[in-house]
Amino acid sequence: MEGRCTCGAVRYRLTAAPMIVHCCHCRWCQRETGSAFVINAVIESERVEAEGIVDYVMTPSESGRGQEIVRCPTCRIALWSHYPSAGRRSSFVRVGTLDDPDQCPPDVHIFTRSKQPWVVLPGDAKVFADFYPSPEHVWSADAQRRWQAMMAR
Predict the structure, then answer these.
(1) Residue 20 has pLDDT above 90, yes or no
(2) Residue 94's CB: how many other CB atoms inside 10 A?
(3) Which of 102, 24, 31 is nearest to 60 (CA)?
(4) Residue of 91, 37, 32, 34 lying closest to 59 (CA atoms)
(5) Spatial separation of the C-alpha atoms in residues 88 and 103, rounded to whole Å
(6) For residue 39, which of 55, 85, 95, 96 is within the disulfide window of CB 3.0 to 4.6 Å?
(7) Helix, strand, coil proportions of the chain in percent (round to 5)?
């Protein structure tokens, strides 16, 4: 999968499928994106190959621990984020920046307690009012193995 910022100064390639795709409905993501939710494809950062210069911008987060957003320095589009739990080992790639975002439908919907009331979720969707308590029933066995290997590095 490949993606880019709006102006095209930064292109990137995912060299593997994401471990999981989150659709986050928290108010913080709504404010940050100016939309009803954000869809993030979670992948090991070593599997993201970027062409072009990027900016790393620390921003506040609801947890109080912040997040580092990788942006194009020209058009300022957010391409992916790094969260404190894994730091720069993992990237939460903004699915909307992929050339073909249809390849990454959400595996799970999180923080649905603050979901916009007009957003209707599929009946078979994995849905959590907050963050899911553990990955065991949400992540595939392969994704869990990949995450554990990434965190061990």
Answers:
(1) yes
(2) 22
(3) 31
(4) 32
(5) 24
(6) 95
(7) 20, 30, 45
